[in-house]
């Protein structure tokens, strides 16, 4: 199947529409690295080099970011200062893995990688007794009957760090995400079977693979449950600050010793409280249903305002401020006539003030 895919016309086009699918399914059989650049393997690498962010990924990214509002969340956008190789050891047809979003094909840093890297950073940067309690609350601990120690789960949730959407509406193009890379093994005998000592006459063996381009941005986010106390919120911010330090100084993913995986924060860590959940309100829901009926029936906007003032405003005033604001937005959608804006604003002001 791979040989057939390699001959399709779209293989010559400017990059795949889904980088994840192309990486896992379209890669041709790997040929001799010394073959000419026109081989299927080389052409596939050049094709993948043109992979761009999908057009509608921004909608999914904003929806995902909005989902973070259900917790206390510390978040910051971070920019890759060099190449990034997340998922290097994953099973892959190319021999070198790469973590790409299953649905959208954009690069993503798994939350488990961030959690493991932070744990290693804390062990290396602090004395054990300095961070013992923080580590227990961050990562949890297993139970130990001999010591009388109960198991506990970590209080902080490490989210996957998704690619930050950068779709350009003017050019109708997303940024390029991947780049061709190469690892050159100079001492195959020594690294492979250790049958010979390193020498200066053995031929190098360049291994081509794909990595994430420098400049890509990722949203790093940590969360704790709603209702957390002040001590837990301080722990959340402290963990986010330490994670930024680890990403900046250590890097994440594979080949960090060679400078891969370094990310710089774009601004400061922001901690947002959970958004208030809208409570059930029969009157609010009935008003929204009435408004939708007026929209479908194309009722005259002046008549909509009159009915709202006489029938609905007295019923909506006793509602919570949050519910009243929802009704305000619903009425703004219904009444758009410039001639009625003064009257509309007057009625909305009365509703907001609860009069």
Compose a concise summary of this entry:
The protein is an alpha+beta fold.
Features:
40% helix, 355 residues, 12 helices, single chain, alpha+beta, five-stranded antiparallel beta sheet, two-stranded antiparallel ribbon, 14% strand
User: So what's the oligomer here?
Assistant: single chain
The largest sheet, given as strand count, sense and whether it forms a barrel, is:
5 strands, antiparallel
- Enumerate how many helices there are, as a single number: 12
Low-pLDDT windows of residues: none
Total number of β-strand segments? 11
- Rg over CA atoms: 28 Å
Element pattern in H and E:
HHHHEEHHEEEEEHEEHEEHHHH
Strand content: 5-15%
Mass-distribution shape:
flat
Overall mean pLDDT: 87
Please report the distance between the alpha carbons of the first and last residues.
Answer: 71 Å
Structural class of the helices, strands and pairings? alpha+beta
The portion of residues assigned to helices is: 40-55%
Number of domains: 2
């Amino acid at each position: 199947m791979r040989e057939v895919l390699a001959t399709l016309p779209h293989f010559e086009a400017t990059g795949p529409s889904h980088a994840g699918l192309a990486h896992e399914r379209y890669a041709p059989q790997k040929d001799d690295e010394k073959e000419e650049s026109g081989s299927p393997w080389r052409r596939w690498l050049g094709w993948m080099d043109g992979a761009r962010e999908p057009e509608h990924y921004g909608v999914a990214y904003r929806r995902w970011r909005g989902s973070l509002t259900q917790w206390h969340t510390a978040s910051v956008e971070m920019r890759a200062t060099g190449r990034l190789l997340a998922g290097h050891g994953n099973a892959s047809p190319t021999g070198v893995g790469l973590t790409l979003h299953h649905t959208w094909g954009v690069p993503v840093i798994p939350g488990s990688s961030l959690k493991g890297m932070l744990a290693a950073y804390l062990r290396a940067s602090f004395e054990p007794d300095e961070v013992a309690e923080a580590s227990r609350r961050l990562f949890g601990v297993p139970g130990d009957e001999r010591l009388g120690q109960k198991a506990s789960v970590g209080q902080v949730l490490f989210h996957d760090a998704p690619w930050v959407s950068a779709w350009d509406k003017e050019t109708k193009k997303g940024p390029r995400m991947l780049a061709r890379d190469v690892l050159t093994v100079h001492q195959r005998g020594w690294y492979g079977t250790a049958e010979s000592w390193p020498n200066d006459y053995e031929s190098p063996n360049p291994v081509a693979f794909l990595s994430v381009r420098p400049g890509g941005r990722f949203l790093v986010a940590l969360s704790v449950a709603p209702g957390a106390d002040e001590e837990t919120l301080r722990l959340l911010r402290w963990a986010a600050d330490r994670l930024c330090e680890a990403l900046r100084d250590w890097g994440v993913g594979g080949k960090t010793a060679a400078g891969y995986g370094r990310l710089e924060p774009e601004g400061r860590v922001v901690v947002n409280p959970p958004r208030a959940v809208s409570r059930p309100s029969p009157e609010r829901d009935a008003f929204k249903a009435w408004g939708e009926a007026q929209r479908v029936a194309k009722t005259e906007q002046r008549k909509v305002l009159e009915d709202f003032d006489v029938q609905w405003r007295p019923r909506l005033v006793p509602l919570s401020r949050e519910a009243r604001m929802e009704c305000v937005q619903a009425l703004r959608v219904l009444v758009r006539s410039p001639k009625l804006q003064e009257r509309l604003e007057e009625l909305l002001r009365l509703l907001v003030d609860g009069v």
